[in-house]
Amino acid sequence: MKYLQAIAIGAILFSCDKSNTPVSNIKTGEWRASLEIQGRELPFNIDLFNTKGGGYHAYIVNADERLRLDDVFVSDDSIDFPLHIFDANIKAKVSPDGRTLTGSFIKNDVDDYVIPFKAEFDKGYRFKPDTTQGVIEQFAGKYEVTFINPKDTTNAIGVFKQNGDSVTGTFLTATGDYRYLQGNVVDGKMQLSTFDGNHAYLFTATKDSNGNLAGEFLSGKSSKATWTAIKNEDATLPNPESLTYLKPGYETIEFKFPDVNGNMVSLSDEKYKNKVVILQLFGTWCPNCMDETKFLAPWYEKNKDKGVEVIGLAFEKKDDFGYASGRVKNMIEKLDVKYDFVIAGTSDKGNASKALPMLNKVGAFPTTIFIGKDGKVKSIHTGFSGPGTGIYYEQFVQHFNEKVNELLNDNLSLNN
User: Residue 97's CB: how many other CB atoms inside 10 A?
Assistant: First the structure.
């Protein structure tokens, strides 16, 4: 019944005219929002503000991240949050006193994807605080993690910080990180959540007498796993440059894909000759790809005159050029990206692998390919450790710059 009600709410709100005319009674400031996933509450925070022009903008808040939503539309007693670069919205009804929102989180690029949403004004906490006066269980540290679901297991690294009963952290895997997680310890249980406009993750864990963790991981409408963790400051993951590689007999990447305006682009084009070229395999639906794009966009502006180019190969949710190019153009505008993009295919990893048959596989979005001035592939980096991973992100940035500088200084192949 709740699911049908959510669909009905979403359908009603889709029909509302969008305008930036404010509703005078809607409250601005901190809101405690939540999604209902798999019978559980997944909390996150929203800050809502007035714009100078009399409309609204908002931030989705997870730990240290404030993800800006520039376009917040209000019409009569309804509010619509287009969710950043993602093809998704939160649509809700505003209560008469302006202090409650009730509606749905809707993924427009996925069939029948509607999740109940609600928010209350002036409640800045995440999970309900621990009201007991007992000793607060400590979860801070670095852990060797195993996620277990019916199909397979996944190894990860968990890193958590704790201040009182408040916890932040993330998980790193071989294909990317789980971004900014935030939560509390309540009655001995660690609870962490994140919602970034696309991913909706909820983690719980308890600690045994040996300090090991065991818990549950819920993702979106239906994905569920259990997880265990052992504290290990030396925990590691596979080398991200060992997972994707060229098949025997190949030294180069070849493709011919349309850019966002339909013009064909190839690495043999004059623009890319005798330059270091970075290929970014990504999708606008992918939060880790968003993090990488936020890194690459200013990096390219700073370094483009050194003889380096970046090409984003977009693998989008629908096999429709108009749809895919529209999503990429939206991302280019919102993230102020100046490097080149092409529409390479759909987001299925198998299809992405077929689009670039010289690779053994495309195992993750993003995947980053470094090409030297001689046109030969020098290395391939699977996944991305974003800013939510702290020192791991700093190490990535350092390694990235060292690698590009090495390729820029390599003139041997051009002199042969």
Answer: 10
